[in-house]
Amino acid sequence: DFEKMNVTKIKNSKNNKKLTMITAYDALFAKLFEEVADMILVGDSLNMSFAGMPDTLSATLDQMIYHTKAVCKGAPKAFVILDMPFGTYINENQALENAVKVYQETNAAAVKIEGGEDRADIIKHLTSNSVAVMGHIGLMPQYVRSEGGYKVRGKTQEDTEQLIRDAIAVEKAGAFAIVVEGVMSDAALKITEAVNIPIIGIGAGNVTDGQVLVWSDMLGFFEDFKPKFVRHYLNGAQLVKESVNQYRSDVQDSSFPSKDEEY
Ligand code: KIV
Ligand code: NA
């Protein structure tokens, strides 16, 4: 029952159907997710899980474009969103130039931008120039150095009110949906009720209009630690290690390749 998504269908999903989003960084996995997920995010989280860096800040637009091309090739029917990396949307003109480059060089359907009230003008400039924008508020990984770490948001009434203002500002700026990351679930509910566009949660409880997870987290390939909000649907790391160990032992005792596996 796969149905190709567009911004209208995504907006109409609010109060109707929960949306499923997953990240992908390459054609192989994108193809596996293509007809299952409503949206595929080429997240700048690839700077950690693909490139091995400690945070998302050093991801470049060319890197994001390279991975987005691969994802779009592997999953041509998917609604693909590219994360605009840190420093590529610091003012309206630069943001639009970079978003136009994304549309010219990839088949991404939309771009995602971190920021609330502080970035509303930039989002407005993009949407009024026909770029589809997904917002991202709450815990924003691109703010990690300026905030001094990753902090769960919405713990006080004051912060919750700020998050609601952020969501409303992003909606008014023309975004078609908003990722809400790392927010207390009671605050996430208030945010979800405050806007008419879908709220896609991660670490924000089950009260939002949909969920997003990083593929390597949900499939258990990332072993260093498991954030509270992640559910492992596969023990990827363990399965891979067992398989590669088996391969080595088959090589060592010459049971691989067998007669059936030779020319
Ligand atoms: O980069 C990313 O993967 C993201 C999601 C966690 C929302 O922004
Ligand atoms: Na991101």
From TrEMBL:
<protein>
    <recommendedName>
        <fullName>3-methyl-2-oxobutanoate hydroxymethyltransferase</fullName>
        <ecNumber>2.1.2.11</ecNumber>
    </recommendedName>
</protein>
<feature type="binding site">
    <location>
        <position position="44"/>
    </location>
    <ligand>
        <name>Mg(2+)</name>
    </ligand>
</feature>
<feature type="active site" description="Proton acceptor">
    <location>
        <position position="181"/>
    </location>
</feature>
<comment type="similarity">
    <text>Belongs to the PanB family.</text>
</comment>
<dbReference type="GO" id="GO:0005737">
    <property type="term" value="C:cytoplasm"/>
</dbReference>
<feature type="binding site">
    <location>
        <position position="114"/>
    </location>
    <ligand>
        <name>Mg(2+)</name>
    </ligand>
</feature>
<dbReference type="InterPro" id="IPR015813">
    <property type="entry name" value="Pyrv/PenolPyrv_kinase-like_dom"/>
</dbReference>
<dbReference type="InterPro" id="IPR003700">
    <property type="entry name" value="Pantoate_hydroxy_MeTrfase"/>
</dbReference>
<comment type="subunit">
    <text>Homodecamer; pentamer of dimers.</text>
</comment>
<keyword id="KW-0479">Metal-binding</keyword>
<dbReference type="GO" id="GO:0003864">
    <property type="term" value="F:3-methyl-2-oxobutanoate hydroxymethyltransferase activity"/>
</dbReference>
<dbReference type="GO" id="GO:0015940">
    <property type="term" value="P:pantothenate biosynthetic process"/>
</dbReference>
<keyword id="KW-0808">Transferase</keyword>
<dbReference type="GO" id="GO:0000287">
    <property type="term" value="F:magnesium ion binding"/>
</dbReference>
<keyword id="KW-0460">Magnesium</keyword>
<dbReference type="InterPro" id="IPR040442">
    <property type="entry name" value="Pyrv_kinase-like_dom_sf"/>
</dbReference>
<feature type="binding site">
    <location>
        <position position="83"/>
    </location>
    <ligand>
        <name>Mg(2+)</name>
    </ligand>
</feature>
<keyword id="KW-0566">Pantothenate biosynthesis</keyword>
<feature type="binding site">
    <location>
        <begin position="44"/>
        <end position="45"/>
    </location>
    <ligand>
        <name>3-methyl-2-oxobutanoate</name>
    </ligand>
</feature>
<comment type="function">
    <text>Catalyzes the reversible reaction in which hydroxymethyl group from 5,10-methylenetetrahydrofolate is transferred onto alpha-ketoisovalerate to form ketopantoate.</text>
</comment>
<feature type="binding site">
    <location>
        <position position="112"/>
    </location>
    <ligand>
        <name>3-methyl-2-oxobutanoate</name>
    </ligand>
</feature>
<dbReference type="Pfam" id="PF02548">
    <property type="entry name" value="Pantoate_transf"/>
</dbReference>
<feature type="binding site">
    <location>
        <position position="83"/>
    </location>
    <ligand>
        <name>3-methyl-2-oxobutanoate</name>
    </ligand>
</feature>
<comment type="pathway">
    <text>Cofactor biosynthesis; (R)-pantothenate biosynthesis; (R)-pantoate from 3-methyl-2-oxobutanoate: step 1/2.</text>
</comment>
<keyword id="KW-0963">Cytoplasm</keyword>
